[in-house]
């Protein structure tokens, strides 16, 4: 099956290079039994891709079993996957087959594989390697012949580094990795996908969609789509139902966009048209909007940096050595300290240890000297250099653990990943 036929059969709209690369890889491995790991953000279509892989494989006449590992309570996930015998636990009133038994001869799709409990991971590894498993409450070895497709919106290797995901299972799942691009990385596909959804919903709700303005089209393409195709589908449905028979402009569209755009840090800032220079050199309305947007972004960057600096310094440097830093930085640290001291007197002894200083703590002293040298070098470091310096210090302090580093910096892991990519840090 060629790419065009594959896209038409499974409704995969788009001509972007990123999408074509994914489809070509999927076609190449679909008709094998090799394990596939689908990686991508929530809403990019991992379930649709898994169904497409199954439906063009030699297992297509057998069952595709879809399992959301993150939605099954930890206490029963083993029973759900491998089945159980009657009386094996409270509430087990009859023998029950598990998903692996049900999928025998077909395909099992393990969505949100990164949320699988550690005690079940070792049993999943055995099924992947030998096809063998035990029902809960049974000592009889059973076998199954299934093709496994796993999916995650997390970085599994990062979970391995944090000891929350087995390394041997990671390598077993990572045989063929297919990275599904987020919608914001293929903006040229957004309008065709949107038109497809609008057509479907117009027919479903017996409605007429009058179209949208050029500015609204630009907004659709510049919007970040944090929910990806799923969010785009929801927006299309809302527009068809709530803006029935109305021409959609930018103002109407903004009501349904809840995330952020590619450009600008403020929510739903308008996309600026091509700037036209004024003949007399004066600032026009477009120029003022551009300056305002830049100032908003700068304000947010400075605010994030101040919070990051204060959080990290407070968690790292002793009160004894805070005075070695410039006064404005001392103020930020002291402000963070005061905001965190809403405690009972009885808790004081426990919290004193946070700022204790020991001369024998060589690594901490070295860290403090690095801070002192950086901020007292005589030159005022730029925002970018300061941010990069803090990130490097946090990663060094926590030996590369990004979760702990992001907590110390007071930012999300996603923001930390973006900053690492921005500054070329590993």
List the helices and strands and how they pair.
Blueprint: H1 3-10, H2 17-30, E1 36-39, H3 46-55, E2 64-68, H4 77-82, H5 99-102, E3 107-111, H6 118-130, E4 132-134, E5 141-143, E6 147-152, H7 156-161, H8 167-173, E7 176-179, H9 190-204, H10 214-222, H11 228-242, H12 250-254, H13 285-316, H14 319-322, H15 327-339, H16 348-352, H17 362-375, H18 383-397, H19 402-409, H20 413-423
Parallel strand pairs: 1-6, 1-7, 2-3, 3-6
Antiparallel strand pairs: 4-5
Helix pairs in contact: 2-3, 6-8, 9-11, 13-15, 13-18, 18-19, 19-20
Top keywords for this entry?
426 residues, alpha/beta, Rossmann fold, Helicase, Ruva Protein, domain 3, 3 domains, two-stranded antiparallel sheet, 20 helices, 7 strands, globular, AAA_lid_NorR, Homeodomain-like_sf, DNA-binding, transcription, Regulatory protein, Fis family
């Amino acid at each position: 099956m060629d790419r065009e036929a594959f896209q038409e059969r499974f409704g995969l709209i788009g001509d972007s290079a990123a999408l074509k690369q994914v489809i070509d890889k999927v076609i190449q491995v679909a008709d094998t039994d090799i394990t596939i790991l689908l990686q991508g953000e929530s809403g990019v279509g991992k379930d649709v891709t898994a169904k497409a892989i199954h439906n063009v494989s030699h297992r297509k006449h057998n069952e595709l079993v879809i399992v959301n590992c993150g939605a099954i309570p930890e206490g029963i996930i083993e029973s759900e996957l491998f089945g159980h015998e009657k009386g094996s636990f409270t509430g087990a009133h009859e023998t029950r087959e598990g998903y692996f038994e049900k999928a025998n001869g077909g395909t099992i799709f393990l969505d949100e594989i990164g949320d699988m409990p550690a005690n079940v991971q070792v049993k999943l590894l055995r099924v992947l390697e030998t096809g063998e498993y035990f029902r809960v409450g049974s000592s009889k070895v059973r076998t199954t012949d299934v093709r496994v497709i796993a999916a995650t919106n997390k970085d599994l290797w990062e979970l391995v580094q944090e000891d929350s995901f087995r390394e041997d299972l990671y390598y077993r799942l990572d045989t063929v990795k297919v990275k599904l691009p987020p919608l914001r990385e293929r903006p040229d596909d957004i309008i065709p996908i949107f038109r497809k959804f609008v057509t479907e919903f117009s027919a479903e709700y017996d409605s007429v969609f009058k179209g949208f303005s050029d500015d609204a089209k630009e907004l659709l393409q510049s919007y970040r789509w944090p929910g990806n195709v799923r969010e785009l589908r929801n927006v299309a449905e809302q527009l068809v139902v709530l803006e029935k028979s109305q021409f959609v402009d930018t103002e109407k569209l903004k009501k349904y966009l809840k995330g952020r755009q590619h450009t600008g840090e403020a929510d739903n800032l308008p996309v600026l048209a091509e700037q036209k220079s004024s003949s007399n050199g004066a600032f026009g309305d477009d120029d003022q909007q551009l300056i305002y947007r830049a100032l908003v972004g700068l304000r947010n960057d400075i605010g994030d940096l101040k919070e990051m600096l204060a959080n990290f310094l407070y968690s790292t440097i002793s009160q004894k050595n805070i005075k070695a830093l410039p006064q404005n930085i001392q103020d930020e640290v002291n402000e963070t300290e005061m905001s965190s001291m809403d405690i009972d007197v009885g808790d004081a002894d426990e919290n004193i240890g946070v700022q204790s200083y020991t001369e024998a703590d060589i690594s901490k002293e070295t860290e403090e000297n690095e801070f002192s040298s950086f901020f007292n070098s005589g030159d005022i470091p730029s925002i970018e250099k300061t941010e990069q310096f803090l990130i490097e210090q946090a990663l060094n302090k926590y030996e590369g653990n990004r979760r702990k580093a992001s907590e110390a910096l007071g930012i999300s892991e996603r923001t930390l990943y973006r900053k690492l990519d921005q500054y070329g840090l590993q």
